[in-house]
Amino acid sequence: LLKSASATGDDLESKLFLVRRMVEARAPETVGAEHYQDFFICTLSSRTIVYKGMLNSSALGIFYKDLVDPDYESLFSIYHRRFSTNTVPKWPLAQPFRFLGHNGEINTLQGNINWQASIQGQYTHPVWDGREEDFGNICDTNFSDSANLDRVAELMVRTGFGPDKAMMLLVPEAYKNHPDLEKHYAGVGDFYNFFESMQEGWDGPALLVFSDGKKVGAKLDRNGLRPSRYYITDDDKCIMASEVGVVEVDPARIIKKGRLQPGRIFLIDFNQGRMIPDEELKNGLASAQPYQQ
């Protein structure tokens, strides 16, 4: 599968994803049923690395030496300090996952898993070279709500969806009879209507932080029941957290601050080197195809 040494960028990411999914699908028979639940590949990517640790949060940098190496640099970092609260804490369920970190709960989980199971046999895309059956099951009831949402979102991103577009249609906002949406977001309602028939929305109190290595962002559920506040400083740093004061910031350096509104997306595009406003982002995605037709 990886015989082509020329694979780069998104093509390489898709190939690495497929390799990992094939290994995971064969894990029950290769590592044994008694060890399967402990088998987990944190990341297999050319762009992102996920570190997990069942340890005190202050010990993460001591345990992973590269995190304190001055030569080790990254444009961004997503940090989650808590294990799952609706399942038994264990290594595979520690966050963040391969694509997102989640503060909240998906209340529609059983319906979402059933939906995925019913349509998975229809999955097809040229990028997979006819290997769709090698994925194994995308969703798994042994995993948490956050882990299952991550698995679906990651599949979409590796199939060609931008992370912002994937999060829009997976966690839709309250778009019907929404006066601000109709006034400022022309065609966004058509976008949601189009995808509503293809994808069951993942709903619940949720703050989702995500990245594909090229963009990093956050999406708040339509009810806005999980807080998310951010600062942007004059030295081009952006800090977002579930509460104020997580990272010490000199007030004199802050050029913009705010909180993520219900249903909105906060996105930074590294290629463009800027934060893309929610209105610009959604109108751009909605006008990319004739969704009303």
Structure commentary:
The chain is 30% helix and 14% strand. With 293 residues, it is α+β, with helices and mostly antiparallel strands. Strands 1-2-3-7-8 form a 5-stranded antiparallel β-sheet. Helix 5 (145-158) crosses helix 6 (163-170).
Structural class: alpha+beta
Strand content: 5-15%
Largest sheet: 5 strands, antiparallel
N-end to C-end Cα span: 38 Å
Name the average pLDDT.
88
- Using only C-alpha atoms, the radius of gyration works out to 19 Å
E-strand count: 8
Query: Count of helices?
Result: 9
The shape is globular
Helix content: 25-40%
Condensed summary:
The strands form 2 sheets. This protein has a 5-stranded antiparallel beta sheet. A 3-stranded antiparallel beta sheet has the order 5-4-6, with no helix packed on it.
Topology of helices and strands:
Blueprint lengths: L8 H22 L2 H4 L23 H4 L36 E5 L4 H11 L25 H14 L4 H8 L8 H6 L3 H9 L9 E6 L3 E6 L8 E5 L4 E4 L12 E6 L5 E5 L4 E3 L1 H9 L7
Antiparallel strand pairs: 1-2, 2-3, 3-7, 4-5, 4-6, 7-8
Helix pairs in contact: 5-6, 8-9
Notable characteristics:
293 residues; alpha+beta; five-stranded antiparallel β-sheet; 9 helices
